[in-house]
Amino acid sequence: MDRAFRSLRHALDIFDYFEKQEIEFHVLTEGIDTTTPMGKCFFQIRNSFAELERNLMSERTKAGLAAARLRGKRLGRPPSLSAQQIVEIKARCLAGESMAMIADRCRLSTRTLYRAISKS
Question: How far is residue 7's CA from residue 55's CA, in Å, rounded to a whole number?
């Protein structure tokens, strides 16, 4: 059920839709039968805890990323070119070599080369 609904509100909306269509909702693996008052209550409690867990995981992830940034970790994809490679590419450009030839030789796109040069 954690993955079936995005939030408690979404679960309740779907449940209301099921009730209006006279569809009985039974969760076989967890023994929830929403045709009974206790089943409805357990359905709501279960989805409340699922939403809480998703929110806590999101909070912990954000806190971990912030802590990594404070420690100086570089997050995301590593750069495709080192500082030395960028210097070499600039030298080749000044020597008259075209960006297409340099990109082909380095096995990169010309867009990557232009972006790397503009950032340096």
Answer: 10
pLDDT digits (tens, 9 = 90+) for 34-49: 888 998 888 888 889 9
Q: At residue 24, what are phi and psi to the nearest 5 degrees?
A: -85, 135
Give 31: exposed, middle or buried? Use CB within 10 Å, 0-12, 13-18, 19+.
exposed
Of 116 and 66, the structure prediction assigns the larger pLDDT to 66
- CA proximity to 50, closest of 105, 8, 22: 8
Q: Kindly give, in sequence order, each residue whose CB lies less than 8 Å from that of residue 99, ignoring residues fewer than 6 positions away.
A: 93, 110, 113, 114
For residue 62, the SS3 value is: helix
The C-alpha atoms of residue 25 and residue 38 are separated, in whole angstroms, by 13
Residue pLDDT, tens place only, 54-93 = 899 999 999 999 999 999 998 998 888 888 999 999 999 8
